[in-house]
Amino acid sequence: MRHEERIAGELNLSPRQVTATINLLDEGATVPFISRYRKEVTGSLDDLQVAGIRDRIQQLRDLDARREAILKSIKEQEKLTPELEKKINEAETMAKLEDLYLPYKPKRKTRASVAKEKGLEPLAIKILEQGNFDPLTEASQYVNQEKGVESEEDALQGARDIIAETINEHAETRQQIRELFMKKGIIASKVLKSKEKDPEAQKYKDYFEWDEPIAKIPSHRLLAIRRGEKEGFLSMNITPEETEAHAIIEKEFLKAHNEASEQVTTAIKDCYKRLMSVSIETEVRMESKKKADEEAISVFAENLKQLLMAAPLGQKAVMAIDPGFRTGCKVVCLDKQGKLLEFTAIYPNEPQKDVTRAGETVKHLVEKHRIEAIAIGNGTASRETENFVKKLGLPSNVIVAMVNESGASIYSASEAARDEFPNEDVTVRGSVSIGRRMMDPLAELVKIDAKSIGVGQYQHDVDQTALKKSLDDVVMACVNNVGVELNTASKQLLTYVSGLGASIAENIVKYRNENGPFKSREALKNVPRLGGKAFEQAAGFLRIEGAENPLDKSAVHPERYKTVEQMAKDAQATVRDLMTSAELRKKVNLKDYVTDEVGLPTLKDIMDELDKPGRDPRDQFEAVQFQEGVNEITDLKTGMKLPGVITNITKFGAFVDVGVHQDGLVHISHLSNSFVSDPAQVVKLGQKVQVTVLEVDVSRKRISLSMKGDAPPRPKSQKPKPKKQQEERQPEGDLQAKLAMLKGKWGN
């Protein structure tokens, strides 16, 4: 089956769509460009479908490359038979390929290879045939002290070693045992005796004695157990019933009931214990880890997408405050473009408690810079600082809102921050980041390594290459979905524009600094190293406010300007008239402009853009208001009903900020009055919610919340659920760690 046909069947698409998409990808087109500007070619595939095709064709090509390498290796050994070649060419997974290659794979010295060197292979073959003979008598013919075969038992042991390796390298049997592990294997974890009392080990207490089917274990639980093992607190193994595994092997290799078959039975047990179970368990550990990684990465990617697409305040003059106690609050003032105007420090909180002077400073700066909104970081002293600001009697039109500052410290110490503010310290840079996050979360958050933003689930435990690829996909999708203002965008933001990358983005900023603002998209062609292909991929996603050609501020691609100009000409109007008059647009019959290259999907997109050029797909900004008087975890009481905001979504529930410096968990069972299988079906990141406090554990900094309309307080005397029914939390060190391009998931 051709790859295109196989992918089409897996993704429920037509082979033509898949072939066309692969051709575009091979020509260097990006996922956002293909899904936005090549709808006629692909049959209007969206970005997830295009990304799925991209990832799957790469997997199949990697499989082909490995297949060729294996065929070449076996051919060089002069052991490639037509039957084996056929099996290798028909293998559809990497595991199947490696099973077929195992007997021919160069390996280090083994017990079986040593036995073969001693000349015991004929004895092993005869025993494996299981005819009626006396193995001990037969083995006596192979006793040879010069070769190291001291006795009949030595000869039989060597023969059994050869048989064990032969069984271990049997592809069909390995596949059956692999399936047994995956379907019926039990993952079990135990605390290491030497670590049982270790305070650090207590975060893994749920797994001190734990077991459940590997087929059912949630990704977050598997990753938690693996982390506990990696940190040296837990041991972990995955095993099915040994008797069932033996039965599978015996069905293939046990052919009689005689003395020879007894030798084979012994070899089977040795093979499973010493060779097959060990290697298959390793494979299953890797495969289960891969699946857990995919799920965790998917969660992270979806959370990141929601965070990046959070509602922007827009271009307003902003004061940003990074709150603190002893070291004071860092205050910065930014203009409507996010440029730093002024910074200072105030000390309204303990221990200085200089409320009067701090208040005068804030009011003076608000008036001086015509501040329209105040962004307060949600870290230490945030609620105290928020209360202080709200009591100052500022104009009612000044918005005061909390902003998630997760990752701001990472940005403040980054190269990007040093380049932008070489003369300011990290506290000023961090405050600027907080303010800009309120103005445009997407533009600011792209400057930070996505893993540091804090919306993940065990993000440091998953495959980092796969994580980066997925998160880069998400960032690119969001950036290109929103569009980028060419004359104000940072180098980091431009890097994610379709077709650009870091090097060209840097050249764009340099050209802009040397030559002034771009007056047209066409002027991009003057940027060094920005060739025709890069222009084609990027131009439609770049906006130029105030450009001479009004289409330059829209998502209409320059390659379709002539189509719009023809529409305007036919309507006896200008392009600008067409963009401002709904009546003129209604007169346009799109079917009149269909050509071999331009179809109705693109024409409809063009008309949408003419209606709202450069429209922002994100929601309107809405400030979060927390409960007054509830500032610390100690202020929480069972049964309290509080406003909050969703800060992180995992497979086992959602974390909610209720304004007490410690997020609470709404377990999946308390997200709704109805059954919920996936928290993402019920809530989204940044969503404002009402929660009820179920339980507060101040010592462990754990808050249990409910979003059920009739959530009852949890009785303090309630006994904990049996171990197997508990839904564990992330280790405490990960509670603050707050995904997607949902990839097609195919096993290797």
Structural overview:
With about 750 residues, this protein is α/β, with parallel strands linked by helices. It has 5 domains: about 5-105, Arc Repressor Mutant, subunit A (Orthogonal Bundle), CATH 1.10.10; about 110-290, Tex N-terminal region-like (Orthogonal Bundle), CATH 1.10.3500; about 320-440, 2-Layer Sandwich (Nucleotidyltransferase, domain 5), CATH 3.30.420; about 465-610, DNA polymerase, domain 1; about 635-735, Nucleic acid-binding proteins (OB fold (Dihydrolipoamide Acetyltransferase, E2P)). Helix content is about 45%, strand content about 10%. A 5-stranded mixed β-sheet has the order 6-5-4-7-8, sandwiched between helices. Mean pLDDT is about 90; it is low at about 710-748.
Taking the sheet with the most strands, its summary is: 5 strands, mixed
The total of helices stands at 29
- According to CATH, the fold-level topology of the largest domain is Tex N-terminal region-like
Shape: globular
Tell me roughly what share of residues is in helical segments.
Answer: 40-55%
N- to C-terminal distance: 18 Å
Classified by CATH, the class of the largest domain is: Mainly Alpha
CATH architecture of the largest domain: Orthogonal Bundle
Which parts are unreliable, with pLDDT below 50 for 5 consecutive residues or more? Answer: 711-748
Structural class: alpha/beta
Instruction: Please tell me the total number of domains.
Output: 5
Question: If strands are numbered along the chain, what order do they take across the biggest sheet?
Answer: 6-5-4-7-8
**How many distinct beta strands?**
15
Rg from alpha-carbon coordinates: 33 Å
Average pLDDT taken over every residue: 90
Give the full name of the CATH homologous superfamily of the largest domain: Tex N-terminal region-like
How large is the share of residues in beta strands?
5-15%
